[in-house]
Design goal:
It is built from 16 helices and eight strands. The chain has helices spanning about 10-35, 40-60, 90-100, 105-110, 120-130, 150-160, 175-200, 205-225, 240-250, 255-270, 300-305, 330-340, 355-365, 380-385, 385-395, 415-430; strands spanning about 65-70, 85, 140-145, 165-170, 285, 310-315, 370-375, 400-405. The strands form two sheets. A four-stranded parallel sheet has the order 2-1-3-4, sandwiched between helices. It has a four-stranded parallel sheet with strand order 6-5-7-8, with helices on both faces. α8 (about 205-225) runs parallel beside α10. The protein is globular and about 65 Å long. The N and C termini lie far apart (about 65 Å). The mean pLDDT is about 95. It binds iron/sulfur cluster.
C-alpha cells in the first residue's frame, strides 16, 4: 500500500526550527526573570535544545530514524549504527509545554479523520502530528503494548498511513518471573527485527556505554527523590516533570547525565544552606497522575499562594530499575524489567494495586499532608482506579482532590477552573486542619 502520509521536509524543518527557538526563548526568559526555582528547569531546557538539534542534524545528514514510544526509553536504541532514536510523542509533550494550546490543532486534526475524542491526547496529538506531516521520517517504529489501548489504536493507524513497519513488544500483565521472561523475549525479537529492517547490527560495546550513563542518571534521579523528602523540599514542584520528561527522550546520553548531576548538586547546595522552594512550607502535596502539561506553573502558584510544595509527583517518583551492562543477555533482560517499572508502564497495567501501592508508598515516603489526582478525562484505566484511590486516602486520613482535566488540552477544563478547584480544596479541606 502506498503511504498516505510522507515525510515533508519543509513542514518538518519549519516546525522543529520554530520549536527550537521557542525552547531557547523559554529558557532565556526564565533566566532573565531570575526565579531561583527555575535554575534546574533552565538546565533541562538546554538539554532539550541539544536533543532537538540532534534530530535536525540527523535529518539533514540522512540518518535512519527509529521512533520509539515513550515507554521504551532510548538507551537501547542509541547503539544501532547510523540510526537516530526519536521519541514519537516528543511534540505532544513539548508543544503544550511552551504554549498551552500548542497541541490542540493536532488533536483536532486526528479527531477530524474520525479518531474518537476519548483517545488520549498523547496519541491523538501524535496522530495529528503525523497527519500534518511535521514529524521526522520514520524507518521503523517500536512500541510496547502499554500503557493503554489509546496508544495501540494510534500506532496501528500510523502504521497504515505511513506504510512503515511497527514492531510491538507485548508488555505482560503481571510483575512476575513469567512476565519478565515474556517481555525479555519480545525485546530480543524487537532488536532482531530492527536489525533486519534497517540492515544494521547492534553495537553491544557502544550499548554498554549508554547503559552505564542511563544507570548513573537513574541513580542521581533516585538521590534527587530522596532530597525531596527534606523539609523544606529543596526544589520546586514543577521540577520532577521536566526531569523525567528528559529521561524519555534522552536516557543514556551524556547531556541527560549532566542535567541529573546538576540537579542533585543544586539540591545538596540548597539543603546545606537550609533553603527550599518554599522557605516556610505549610503544606506538602502529592500529585499522583500526570501534571497538567500546559500549566506546570500551577506548582509555582501553589508555592506562592499557599506555601504548598508538591513534594512528589507520579513522574518524579523513582521506581525504575537498573541494568547490568555485563553481557547482551543481562542488558536485554534488565532493560525488559526496567521498562516494566518506569513511570506509567508500572502503574497503568495489571491490577489497580500496582497504582495504589505506589501511591501509598509516595504518601508515606514523602510525608505529604494531602493528595491531588488529576483525573485525566480520556484515561479509562486511570478513571477506573478512583474508587481504590479514595479508599486508600480515607484509610490514611489524607485529604484527596480528584479533579477532572485533560492534561494536554486546556479546553475541556481551563487553567483558571483547575486553580479554583485546587484553591477551594486547600482552603476547605487542608488548611483548616493544619
Ligand atoms: S494517560 Fe491514560 S490514556 Fe493517556 S497514555 Fe497514559 S494510560 Fe493511556
Amino acid at each position: 500500500m502506498a503511504p498516505t502520509v510522507r515525510f515533508n521536509p519543509e513542514k518538518f524543518f519549519r516546525v522543529f526550527e520554530d520549536h527550537l527557538t521557542a525552547v531557547r526563548n523559554m529558557a532565556e526568559a526564565m533566566e532573565s526573570i531570575g526565579d531561583p526555582r527555575d535554575v534546574c528547569v533552565v538546565k533541562a531546557m538546554k538539554a532539550a535544545e541539544i536533543y532537538l538539534q540532534d534530530i535536525l542534524k540527523a535529518v539533514e545528514s540522512g540518518k535512519k530514524f527509529l521512533w520509539h514510544e515513550f515507554l521504551l526509553l532510548p538507551e537501547l536504541f542509541m547503539s544501532f549504527p547510523g540510526v537516530q532514536p526519536y521519541m514519537s510523542e516528543t511534540l505532544c509533550g513539548f508543544l503544550c509545554l511552551v504554549e498551552p494550546e500548542g497541541l490542540t490543532p493536532y488533536i483536532d486534526s486526528a479527531r477530524n479523520i474520525g479518531l474518537p475524542p476519548d483517545i488520549c491526547p498523547t496519541d491523538s496529538g501524535l496522530l495529528g502530528c503525523v497527519l500534518e506531516e511535521i514529524q521526522p521520517p520514520a524507518h521503523v517504529i517500536v512500541s510496547p503494548t502499554t500503557p493503554c489501548d489509546s496508544a495501540l489504536s494510534a500506532y496501528q493507524i500510523i502504521q497504515k498511513l505511513m506504510d512503515v513497519p511497527v514492531v510491538y513488544c507485548d508488555t505482560p500483565y503481571w510483575h512476575d518471573e513469567r512476565g519478565i521472561e515474556l517481555y525479555e523475549r519480545h525485546i530480543w525479537k524487537m532488536i532482531r527485527q530492527v536489525e533486519e529492517i534497517l540492515g544494521v547490527s547492534m553495537d553491544w560495546d557502544k550499548c554498554r556505554e549508554h547503559i552505564r550513563m542511563a544507570n548513573e542518571s537513574m541513580e542521581l534521579f533516585y538521590a534527587e527523590g530522596e532530597m525531596r523528602k527534606l523539609k523544606p523540599c529543596p526544589h520546586p514542584g514543577k521540577l520532577p516533570f521536566y526531569h523525567f520528561l528528559f529521561f524519555e527522550v534522552a536516557s543514556g546520553t551524556d547531556y541527560l547525565l549532566d542535567v541529573c548531576k546538576f540537579i542533585l548538586e543544586d539540591s545538596r547546595k540548597l539543603a546545606a544552606e537550609k533553603k527550599g522552594a518554599v522557605q516556610d512550607e505549610r503544606i506538602r502535596l502529592l500529585l499522583y497522575n500526570p501534571d497538567p502539561v500546559y500549566d506546570t506553573g500551577i506548582h509555582d502558584w501553589l508555592e506562592d499562594e499557599y506555601k504548598a510544595v508538591t513534594a512528589m509527583t507520579l513522574f518524579g517518583h523513582p521506581t525504575a530499575t537498573f541494568i547490568d551492562p555485563s553481557t547482551p543477555e543481562t542488558i536485554v533482560r534488565d532493560y525488559a524489567w526496567k521498562m516494566m517499572n518506569i513511570c506509567m508502564a508500572r502503574q497503568y497495567r495489571g491490577p489497580h494495586e500496582f497504582f495504589v501501592d505506589d501511591m501509598v508508598a509516595a504518601i508515606d515516603g514523602w510525608d505529604v499532608d494531602a493528595v491531588i489526582v488529576t483525573a485525566h478525562i480520556p484515561c479509562k484505566h486511570g478513571q477506573g482506579a478512583h474508587g481504590f484511590i479514595r479508599e486508600a486516602c480515607r484509610e490514611r486520613d489524607k485529604p484527596l482532590l480528584v479533579h477532572e482535566i485533560d492534561v494536554q488540552d486546556p479546553r475541556p477544563v481551563s487553567i483558571d477552573k483547575t486553580r479554583e478547584a485546587v484553591a477551594e480544596f486547600l482552603e476547605t479541606q487542608v488548611l483548616p486542619y493544619k
